[in-house]
Amino acid sequence: MDTTLRFDILPQDTPAHDALRQTLQARIDGKTKPLGALGRLEDLALQLGLIQGRPDPVARQARVIVCAGDHGIAHEGVSAYPQEVTWQMVMNFLAGGAAVNVLARSVGMEVQVVDAGVAHDFGRIAGLVHAKVAPGTANSAVQPAMTAAQCDAALARGRALAHQAAEAGCQVLALGEMGIANTSAASLLLHKLAGVPLEVATGRGTGVDDAGLARKRAVLTRAAARTGTLGAFDALCEYGGLEIAMMAGAMLGAAERRLLVLVDGFIASSALLAAYRLAPAVRDYAVFAHQSAEAGHAALLQALQARPLLALDLRLGEGTGAVLAWPLVQAAAAFLDGMASFAAAGVSGQSA
Ligand SMILES: Cc1cc2ncn([C@H]3O[C@H](COP(=O)(O)O)[C@@H](O)[C@H]3O)c2cc1C
Ligand SMILES: O=C(O)c1cccnc1
């Protein structure tokens, strides 16, 4: 089966992009510094320019969308915390007291909290984006996590949220998540989509002990054995995460609107992996913010040939790592805009 959605993402290997790449590289190289000396900030500036299709890209406004969803597989005892933490943390996000709120505030980023599929009735609570597809997924250890229609709905709602961010004036979109047991869903996606063995793909998530990790591995082995090789859409349906599918849709929708996508940790990277398999061009719009301490993230980054910007031993999700990379994107745009060129400053260039 496949998604009914078609994502219209401009690929970046056109002749127009080649010309712009040369223009951007010349601008970067003309700045008053030894060639290449701003390192990965130079790569970021180049990527931002290519994404926006202009030699003078801007990074003024950014949003983090935190998608929350519950997981039937939580009932197998794969997390160190109970399922109700998901909705309780949604309340915490709305009150502004979670890690992602504080970090986003510190870097001037707006937070949008979305109910993608939490197993709780929030009523008409203010500030929450009500995009609930279902009150949690089914238990993927015994049956598909969601139907094709549910997966399509999650992708479509994520895409619409990204388009809204673009209309609100954002150039950059970060995706975060909350969902007890979603490291299990992400590990299963990594295993099915990139062929990474479950022993490598499975980690401690919120901090299960050795016995908990053994139980988690056994549950995931049982879940994985239900199916054979899967495409991206079927893998999302089988192993879910309504919030993971919604993040994938948002990443694809952001790329459609030529926004730079800040990818958070293990869970968000699994959403990008699925999105990439649905529409490979999305990869050019992605910046991998950080390397999570969650086991499996290294293999996931490797599968995407991604080199994250930061390594802070975070293992939280919520978009915490992604928001911390926003100042680096701003710095890249700032040096490209504000640094003097050799010509303008009267500084001698490279000899011979
Ligand atoms: C209080 C609390 C806040 C969180 N914020 C993010 N997560 C993170 O932990 C969960 C995934 O780990 P696992 O698969 O082991 O359940 C997700 O909700 C993720 O966002 C949290 C977890 C907890 C307990
Ligand atoms: O890296 C992540 O996204 C992560 C790691 C552990 C728990 N929750 C999320």
From TrEMBL:
User: Keywords, A to Z?
Assistant: Cobalamin biosynthesis, Glycosyltransferase, Transferase
* This protein's pathway: Nucleoside biosynthesis; alpha-ribazole biosynthesis; alpha-ribazole from 5,6-dimethylbenzimidazole: step 1/2
Q: Which GO terms describe its biological process?
A: cobalamin biosynthetic process
**What EC numbers are recorded for this enzyme?**
2.4.2.21
User: One Pfam family for this entry, by name?
Assistant: DBI_PRT
**Annotated catalytic residues:** E318
Check the record and name the InterPro entries matching this protein.
Nict_dMeBzImd_PRibTrfase, Nict_dMeBzImd_PRibTrfase_bact, Nict_dMeBzImd_PRibTrfase_N, Nict_dMeBzImd_PRibTrfase_sf
Q: Name one GO molecular function term.
A: nicotinate-nucleotide-dimethylbenzimidazole phosphoribosyltransferase activity
Q: Which reaction does it catalyse?
A: 5,6-dimethylbenzimidazole + nicotinate beta-D-ribonucleotide = alpha-ribazole 5'-phosphate + nicotinate + H(+)
The reply to whether Transferase figures as a keyword in the UniProt entry is yes
What general EC class does the enzyme of this chain belong to? Answer: transferase
The record's function comment reads: Catalyzes the synthesis of alpha-ribazole-5'-phosphate from nicotinate mononucleotide (NAMN) and 5,6-dimethylbenzimidazole (DMB).
Instruction: Report the sequence similarity comment from the record.
Output: Belongs to the CobT family.
**Record's protein name:** Nicotinate-nucleotide--dimethylbenzimidazole phosphoribosyltransferase
* Organism from which the protein derives: Ideonella livida
